[in-house]
Each structure stands twice: as C-alpha cells, then as structure tokens.
Amino acid sequence: MTTILVTGGAGFIGSALVRHLLASSDDRVVNVDALTYAADLSSLDAVMHDPRHVFVHADVNDGPTLRALFAAHRPEGVVHLAAESHVDRSIDAPKAFIDTNVVGTTTLLQEALHHWGGLPRAEADRFRFVHVSTDEVFGSAAGTARFDESTPYDPSSPYAASKAAADHLARAWHRTYGLPVIVTNCSNNFGPYQFPEKLIPLVIAKALAGEPLPVYGRGENVRDWLYVEDHVCALRLVLERGTPGDTYCIGGHGERRNIDVVRAICALLDELQPDPGGAHERLVRFVADRPGHDLRYAIDPVHIQRSLGWAPQESFESGLRKTVEWYLANREWSARIADTRYRGERLGVQGAR
C-alpha cells in the first residue's frame, strides 16, 4: 500500500484523482484542501468514509500543518493540484493567485523537501512530487503549431503567469536540491463536478435556465479539451512511472473553437432536454472579449504517449455527452452552487473592450 498526498483534492480535477486512486488501487490518499469557493465536498461523497482516505482541511501556505502531515503519514508521493485557476478571477483579483499558486507551491515544495531529506535511501528513491500545471503558461499557439515540452513560456493572464512561476519553482527545487519533481501541463479539462464558472458547465446551466449564453468576442478562440478521467489516468501514470526532472504535456486531441463547443452543448441539450421555446442555440450572445485572451491552445501529447503509453480514452464528443448527461442528472448540484456561491455573473471585465 502506497500513501499519496493530494493537494486540492476537493476541487474538480483533484476529487476526480482521489476517486480514481481509491477505486483502482490499494493506495491510501491524504487529501489536503483549503475548501475555497470552488471546492465541493460532495464530489468526495463516494470516498469520504473509505478508511484509506484521510481528508484534511488545510491551506498549502500552512507550513507547520503540512510538516505535521508529512511526518504523520509519510507519503511516497505528492500530487500538487491546489491552485486558483479561473482566468477571469485572476484579472479581478490577482493577489490571491500569487498567494496560492506561487507562495503556496513554494511552501509545499519546501515541506516536501524536508520530508524527502529525512527518508531512508530506499524510500527517498521511490518518492515523487508531481506538480500539475496548465497549457496556458505557453501563451497562444501560432498557426497550426502545438505545445510540447520544449515550448517557451509566454503567459498572458495573471493566472497563467502565476502557474508559470510555480512551474519554474518546481523545476528549481529539482535542479537545486534534487527533489524528484515531475511537471505536467494539461489542456482544458471538462467533466462531472466542474465548478460552473468554467465554459462547459456555465453554458449547460445557463441553457437549462433559458438564459443568454455569453461567448467572448466571436467565439473564434480555440481550446484543446481533455476529459477529466483521461487526465487523472495520465497523472497516475506520471506518478508511478514518470522520470524525475521530466515534463509531460497532456492533451486530448480535442481542439475546438469556443463557439463550436457552445453549439455542441446546445445540440446535445436539444436532444436530451428539449426547450419548448426552441433550439438552445438561439440563446447565444457574443460579448466583449476577455482582456489578453489567447487565441489558441493546442497540446502535442506524443511524449507521454511514447514514454508512458498513455492515450485519451474519450473523444471530445463522447466526453461531452457524458458531461451533459451528468449535469442533467445532477441539476440540484449546480442549483446549490447558484444559491450559495456563484450565479453565473461575468467576471474579469476590467479592461474589456
């Protein structure tokens, strides 16, 4: 039995990883989450009482608590997912992104280093620290180019810049101190339990409510979509078989213009939940673009495919159908968030034209 410390394990990707690890392995999971607005403990209902799951309400900036957790549970691996992650919120309030993504990552790296340095040789050799990042650190992909592990960093938003800084810190802790760090950069995730500030769940919620569906600019911005279950399978492979000091770009071969994503959601809803008022696409409204909005993201995942044998199991179409079906079957989940935390209002309008 291996013990894995997961940060941000009550968030969208983190909770999917926790559920995956507990369902498909004998691992113990120490789940650390600060329970900020985007976390949701209901995403852990299936595992909260599993004896192999330990949930700890703590912030990655809390060094003493992290040190105590490392000492008490002696994890063989860390998967660092805790982050502020919404670009629009980073435009409105960038300091929170620096506090969590940069300072918090530094705190966690330092406590992991302290733990790793005290391990017996055999345990130290097995230890891994997986730092989970984003393709947004690369800026906008030109022409038909796709990001890979050698792409230079060129972040546009405060969010992307904070994650770029965290990536550099993670690699520095490997190069300077020898901490066995592995960095991953993933494309846009989607799937069940995603907080409805992000495009796909936001469009689903607004369409079901008969509200306008806001699309930035003319909807020409391209994102590379990755079903969350495929992502967590990749993270497990990286944790178990990845090479310290290496980087793995994880993408789902799912490049789509934002307007095409919205239209695909509308078409599925027309099929699964018809609106007496007409086709859901009638609700699309183009709005002022996001400041600093990168035109295109696209990942080339050939390195992780060749070195670790990973490939996405869901196409964009099959993953989107599963996602829409989940939100239709769990409408009370989105309604509870709308009643308490987020009503679908636009964020990040500072500087918008």
Overview of this protein structure:
This protein is α/β, with parallel strands linked by helices and 353 residues long. The protein has a domain at 3-195 and 225-254 and 295-314: NAD(P)-binding Rossmann-like Domain (Rossmann fold), CATH 3.40.50. The chain has 12 helices and 12 strands. The chain has helices spanning 12-24, 63-73, 87-92, 94-117, 121-126, 158-177, 199-208, 228-241, 258-272, 302-308, 316-329, 331-340; strands spanning 3-7, 28-33, 53-57, 77-80, 128-134, 181-186, 188-190, 213-216, 222-227, 247-250, 255-257, 284-287. The strands form 3 sheets. A 7-stranded parallel beta sheet has the order 3-2-1-4-5-6-10, sandwiched between helices. It is globular and about 65 Å long. The chain starts with a strand and ends in a 13-residue tail after the last helix. The mean pLDDT is 96.
Could you give the topology of this structure?
Layout: E1 3-7, H1 12-24, E2 28-33, E3 53-57, H2 63-73, E4 77-80, H3 87-92, H4 94-117, H5 121-126, E5 128-134, H6 158-177, E6 181-186, E7 188-190, H7 199-208, E8 213-216, E9 222-227, H8 228-241, E10 247-250, E11 255-257, H9 258-272, E12 284-287, H10 302-308, H11 316-329, H12 331-340
Parallel strand pairs: 1-2, 1-4, 2-3, 4-5, 5-6, 6-10, 7-9, 8-12
Antiparallel strand pairs: 9-11
